[in-house]
Amino acid sequence: MTRIFGIDLGTTNSLIATMENGAPRVIADPETRHSLLESVVALAPDGSVHVGPEAVEREPHLSRERDGRVSAVGFPGGEYGAVIRSVKRYMGLGGEEVAREERARYAFADLSGPVVRFRIGKRTFTPPQISAEILNALKRRAERALGEKVERVVITVPAYFNDGQRQATKDAGRLAGLEVVRLVNEPTAASLAYGLNQLAEGNVAVYDLGGGTFDISILSIKGGIFEVLATNGDTHLGGDDIDGALVDWLLAETPAEVGRDRHVWNSARRGAEEAKRRLSEADEVELRLELPSHLIVKQLTRQALEKIAEPLVARSLKRCELALADAKLAATEVGAVVLVGGATRMPLVRRSVAELFGREPLCSLNPDEVVALGAAVQAGVLMGTQGDMLLLDVVPLSLGIETMGGVMERLIHRNTTIPTSVTENFTTAVDNQSHVDIHVLQGERELAKDCRSLARFKLGPIEAQPAGLPRIAVTFLIDANGILNVSARDERTGREHSIDVKPSYGLTDEEIERMLEEAIDLGEEDLEQRLLIVARNDAEQILGALRKQLGEFPGLIEPDERARLEEQAEWLEAARKTSDRELISRLVEELNELSTPFAGRIMDFAIKRALEKKSVEEVS
User: Fold this and answer.
1) Among the listed residues 128, 186, 171, the one whose alpha carbon sits nearest the alpha carbon of residue 7
2) CA distance linking residue 484 with residue 496, whole number of Å
3) In angstroms, what CA-CA distances link 201 with 122, 220, 287, 388, 562?
4) 458: CATH
């Protein structure tokens, strides 16, 4: 079997790893011996592409010339070439989903389109195309180091990536000439790197503070089986944000227009990154930033750095608490905590995590490499070299369909392990309905209008029958890569229609977080609206059935009984137009109880008529 490699396609850095002699190892560049490849791509005016350190050198920054002058160098963007960082943030996005504050960062093509496109002169590039260049660089590195072709890979993705973002990642692999055998969530991969599958049983927290994003996953391990109980995260929280806060501190006394200069800001960021790394070991460092007009020199202590970073770390701890609540666990019930991401080297982060969970976190492996190592372990599982280990990921947002009254009916709930398949039966709300509209939704709100629309399709024609009689089986199937297939089947005719939900663009991590927060903040209000709609639906159904029965079986009801039913129906019809859910529900129950004798006589009449028909057929 062809070897499968593990790739960590990161926001800030990317790596490739493989299994050798039963253990994972990261493949370093044969020339530089560096394992990390900066996730930076430079698109030159002459059409050439540079990745990693070569791209970083072409980023706008300040450089001291031989004559001592400090000048601006690098690609300024537009037709003069551009350097793109953190392209992972744009994977699977539509143009309109690019945050307003990020639109000035790069030259974008038409942002009204369904896919983000970077404009370089007359050329445009999509995020998967840019990511493919990073994958190609990793592929070439491994081929040079090992002397064999790299064709099949496992790629890690953030736990919050939705269908569109996952599909964009697979597209990047295809553009790089790679077969993406599996996508695996980054925090889940990290747990594999630490060999936690060898635990007989227990709960594990994976705290992943990377360059651009933060993720927390709570996992359960039983008999070598990994199950993700809950995930949470913050799309704009990571080492980059700490660096940005440090840059603001460094440039606080300079004129605003100086700080807005990309050459100055990028040079300041480089200094901030280096200072942050050194303060993991040292107590104090000196920051020097040479500007064309003057020199900035500041002393930075570890204590001052921690004061700057503390609000950001506190945000990550809040996310941990939310994930624990989703998993229905106390912090003390977590038996191991894994640290992932270069920012976790900060003593403040390690102390804060230890205090929250009441135990020292696991940090013996290089936090920059641990996800790639886990991807290699997963590759070994797929090649059959890692025993019977089983890996289960989860869906980040609930999936369902729109039902009568605009209600979101969930089939697969948030944090359900995948792969999974769920089938539920639905029926029609209107007599002689010829088609059924299936509206696929994603989200945590109670009403369809407040959830994200994934797809729509029609099933039909179906056999014309009274409302409530047709049986439509709707199946949601999510594969191991998180790609959703939805099918609907008319059980009577066998007619079926299905669709793969692979949107050309998806939600940003930030929007997923916003949807979750809205579901929490508006939960009571949403539930009340849903219950009101359900009560109105119940009222409409019983009123419709009663009108139909009174019209078809007038001889089975006495005038005074009919008058009482019609009076009760009028009260219910009036209440249905109000927002008094309790009144509607009470009147539905009263009308149901009042009409039970009439319904019983109709049932007796139908049985008698069926028996008479059978007797006639037997005689004939």
Assistant:
1) 186
2) 17
3) 57, 8, 48, 16, 65
4) 2.60.34.10
Of residues 8, 171, 243, 513, which has the active-site annotation?
8
DSSP H helices, 22-148, are 53-57, 127-146
Would you give the distance in Å from CA 496 to the centre of its chain?
Answer: 29
| Contacts of residue 257, Cβ cutoff 8 Å, sequence gap at least 6 | none
110 in any annotated domain = yes
Q: What is the pLDDT of residue 132?
A: 95
Q: Domain containing 443: what range? A: 395-521
How many domains does the chain fold into? 3
Angle, helices 239-250 vs 262-278, to 10°: value is 110
* Residue 160 · residue 208 · CB < 8 Å: no
pLDDT value at position 336?
93
Comparison of pLDDT for 270 and 67, the residue scoring more: 270
Task: Give the strands of the sheet with 484-490, arranged side by side.
Answer: 420-426, 472-478, 484-490, 496-501
Cβ atoms of 119 and 45 within 8 Å: the answer is no
Is 88 in the active site? Answer: yes
Is 186 assigned a catalytic role? yes
Tell me the pLDDT band of 510, cut-offs 50, 70 and 90: low
Does residue 490 share a domain with residue 472?
A: yes
Rounding to the nearest 10 degrees, give the CA dihedral for residues 573, 579, 581, 583: -50
Residues 129-146 pLDDT 10s: 999 999 999 999 999 999
Q: What is the mean pLDDT of the chain?
A: 82
Catalytic residue (one of 186, 273, 402, 490): 186
- Would you tell me how many other CB atoms lie within 10 Å of the CB of residue 125? 21
- The reported pLDDT for the residue numbered 119 is 84
**Both tokens of residue 407?**
């209600």
Identify the active-site residue in 88, 139, 170, 276.
Answer: 88
Span 42-51, average pLDDT: 84
Write out the two tokens for 544.
């419709």
pLDDT at 388 over 70: no
Among candidate residues 29, 208, 273, 444, the one labeled active-site is 208
Q: How far apart are CA 92 and CA 115, in angstroms?
A: 7
335 within domain boundaries: no
Average of per-residue pLDDT across 492-519? 64
Burial class (CB in 10 A: 0-12, 13-18, 19+), 138: buried
Q: Residue 61 and residue 140: Cα distance in Å, rounded?
A: 28
Tens digit of each residue's pLDDT (9 = 90 or more) over 325-357? 999 999 999 999 999 998 999 899 999 999 999
Across 374-379, average pLDDT: 93
- Of 474, 497, 521, the last residue of a domain is 521
d(CA 435, CA 373): 51
Q: How far apart are CA 448 and CA 1, in angstroms?
A: 47
CA angle 40, 46, 48 (to 5 degrees): 40
